[in-house]
Amino acid sequence: MSKISKILIIEDEAAIRRVLSKILEEENPDYQVSEAEDGLQGIEKIKNEDFDLVICDIKMPKMDGEEVLAMAKKMKPEISFVMISGHGDLETAVNTMRLGAFDYISKPPDLNRLLTTVRNALEKSHLVVENTILKKKVSKNYQMIGNSEPINRIKEIIEKVAPTEARVLITGGNGTGKELVAHQLHEQSSRSKFTLVEVNCAAIPSELIESELFGHVKGAFTSAVKDRAGKFEAANKGTIFLDEIGDMSLSAQAKVLRALQENVISRVGADKDVKIDVRVIAATNKDLRKEIEEGRFREDLYHRLAVILIKVPSLNERREDIPLLIEHFAEKIAQEHGTAKKEFTAGAIELLKEYDWTGNIRELRNVVERLIILGGKEVSKEDVVLFASK
């Protein structure tokens, strides 16, 4: 099924509005075209309706096109704008692009150029909407479940720290949810419209970590058959999450330190630098102070990373969150399996609250799934004794 694209034409000359509407409607029956005769009317329509694309004249009475563009982008930044003008000059074109216009076309517009620009602008607009929907789904996967004092304290810190550019070092045991904290910091930051790139430093062999992080040029080593950008470049304008940073080699640590100090990286085998704009969030399950004492971690890098320290509590330190976590996992597992959600009895929940959760939230999730699969119509205390034993 084709997607309807809603297009608004803001133009003070009625004849031009009619011609543009006719051209677009004849080009594609899925183009749903609306009109506004001046900037104020256009802004009113943008407020009250959702458009995929606005084609806007620049010189208009009441409110000119640049004002419309600036105001509309504040209200609905996802809308694509194509600006048109019979008084075109380079400065105006540059200014509208700086304000967020997709393109600028002089009057009278070349028909082929106009239609191509409209198609491209709509494609971009649809991608932005799809990415927003996807981001919301991703955000749901990275919710921080719980109302315990330690979790509420972390939520408060995230709220204060996320909008800043401060680097954050997240500590805590395996399975405590350090990656959830990293995702929340990114999602609540001004960088959320760009990428969050995750790197598990423990999963990459030490001889490949530098290439993975900083990229390489063709011929830098035996298997480098072409130039390749690294994770820092992929995260440009966004955030890089260096998980298990305590497992990173000392030589890679030196390069990360330089990236933090100078905002530049160099690909393996390259003789020129690449400028980057990346926020760094790191996490570790190790005691980095001890690693520093034993010569395995650079103290200067530690101080660069640990501007803000967030310690994620173990599940044993937040047992009061276990009922909420069980509820959350039971719902997710039912969705994954395509089955009805299975309830846990009060006795089952109380018994699970008493367990020693050495594997933290990850272990609890596995146990909940096991009980849902092996337990009765509702998960009872007896099911927990039978199937959740350590």
From TrEMBL:
Q: Which GO terms describe its molecular function?
A: ATP binding; DNA binding
Highest rank taxon of the organism: Bacteria
Specify the Sigma-54 factor interaction domain's residue ranges. Answer: 144-373
The PTM 4-aspartylphosphate maps to: D57
Which BP terms in the Gene Ontology apply to this protein? phosphorelay signal transduction system; regulation of DNA-templated transcription
Give the matching InterPro entries: AAA+_ATPase, AAA_lid_NorR, CheY-like_superfamily, P-loop_NTPase, Sig_transdc_resp-reg_receiver, Sigma_54_int, Sigma_54_int_dom_ATP-bd_2
Q: Where in the numbering of this chain does the Response regulatory domain appear? A: 6-122
The reply on keyword ATP-binding is: yes
Q: Which UniProt keywords apply?
A: Activator, ATP-binding, DNA-binding, Nucleotide-binding, Phosphoprotein, Transcription, Transcription regulation
Q: What is this protein called?
A: DNA-binding transcriptional response regulator, NtrC family, contains REC, AAA-type ATPase, and a Fis-type DNA-binding domains
